[in-house]
Amino acid sequence: MEIPMTYPRLALSTALGLCLAALAGCSGKADGLTDAELSKLLHTEGQPDYRVDADAVNCLRAWSGDGQLQSGLPEAYLGDHKDECRRTVQGWLNDATRNPQQLLFTDLAKSKPTERAMKLLAALPALPAAEQPAVAPPPPPVAAPAAPVNTFEPVGETTEQRFNSSAEELDHLCQQARQIIERSQLNNADLTRRVNECVTGAGEIRAQMSAETANNSGFGKSALAKSSQMAVRSAQVLLNEVQRAADAKR
C-alpha cells in the first residue's frame, strides 16, 4: 500500500533538496581514500597523522563482519570494548578536520578499508622509547597476507545498499543512546523524548523505503537514502549529548 505524502515527509524531501550537494557520495568513499587520508582518520591522539591507532584498527576489524579479518582479534573487542571503541572512533569522525569527507563509521568498517588500515598499522616504524604511550594499546594485528592484484573496477553502491548502511548505523546510534539513558538512569525528559523519536523514526524510515521499493520509485528511494544519511548525522549529535549528560550525572 502506498504511503501518502504527509507533511513531515514533504518537509523531509524539501530538506533533502537543500542538502543534496553536501550529502552526495558521502557513503562508499572509504575505498577511494589515499593512505594518508585513511591514516589521518585513524591516527593516535597526540601523534603524527601517519601513526594509525591500533585500538581503532582492531575496532574496525570487530565491526567488519569479516571472519578472516577478525581472526586473532583480542577477546575484548568481541565484548564490552566493542561498543566503547566504536564511540571513540565515532568521536574522531565527528571532527571535520579529521573527516572532511564526512564518512560514516560503517563506511570504514568494511573489509577493504579495514584490511588497508591493518596493513598501514603493520608497516609503522616502532616509536622511540621516550615517545611510547603511557598505556600501551592492545597488540597490533598480524598483517594479513597480501591479496592478489585485482584489476576489476568495483561498481558503486546501489541506492538500497547506501540506504541499508545508513539505516543500520541510524538504528545502532538510536539504540545506543537509549541504552545509555537506561543504564545511567538519566532523568532528562527532553533527551528521553528525542531518543524515543530517534528509535521510532529509524523504524518508520525503513517502512517508507519498503513502500517506495514496492512502488518501484527510483526517485523516492534515492531521496530516502539521503534522508537516512541526514538522520544519521542528527543521531550522532544526539548520542553525544546523551553521553555527556550521563557523564555529568556520575
From TrEMBL:
<feature type="signal peptide">
    <location>
        <begin position="1"/>
        <end position="24"/>
    </location>
</feature>
<protein>
    <recommendedName>
        <fullName>Lipoprotein</fullName>
    </recommendedName>
</protein>
<keyword id="KW-0732">Signal</keyword>
